[in-house]
Amino acid sequence: MRLINLCALGAASTLLINPAFAEQRRELGAHVHGHSVLNMAVDGNKIGFDLRAPGADIVGFEHEAKSEADKKALNEAKLLLRSPLELFSLTKAAGCKLSSSFAHYTKDPDHAEHHKKHHGPGHDKNHGDHGHSKHKGHDHDKHDGHAKHEGHDHDKHHGGEHSGHQGDHAEFHAGYEFTCAAPKKLTQITFSFFKEFKNARELEVTVATAKGQSKFEVTAAKPTIDLGTLMQ
Questions:
Q1: What DSSP line would sit under 48-107, residue for residue?
Q2: What is the tens place of the pLDDT at every residue in 163-185?
């Protein structure tokens, strides 16, 4: 199974287990400095991870890299983000091997190419569980500009699904696929994410398996999550 499909499965599994997750993901804005999100999905012996992190947390800026210093920082960050075992460690007994990985910065040309290749040209228009043309049965264009919709600021409301794609904010998007010899033995994940990225403050981890969904908050002071019976 290709990485991008497994990551999509992760989002789908989460939505099936908890339909409110999509709305919660949007309400997180979802672009909060210091706050990154990692979704994990298990499918047999395949485990997929989808990471979103504000640019400020990873490289200290959220603009397009134009100076040599910014380009150097960006390239180093993407190289590190493509090496997940530098950012977290999995229980050795599970025998997990990295199958594939990617890392993009949303104000980088390769990010647009990645979405065009893997999601198709209509991805941004129909991103997530709703498009821009219609929302909850209403004609989007008939609303008063992009100002308000049912009590929500439009840009903020859609920011959770499109964070990094518009406005002044930018984020890193990384994905990983592991193939594990004994996935049921994956009982813990320990993160060194905060040692590598000093501006990061917390990592919200959502794990979706056939047993259900669990959410964890990881910080430098609490870098380990216990998957307990989720993998059994």
A1: EEEEEEEHHHHTS--S---SHHHHHHHHHHHHHHT-GGGTEEE-GGG-EEEEEEEEEETT
A2: 344 457 899 999 999 999 999 99
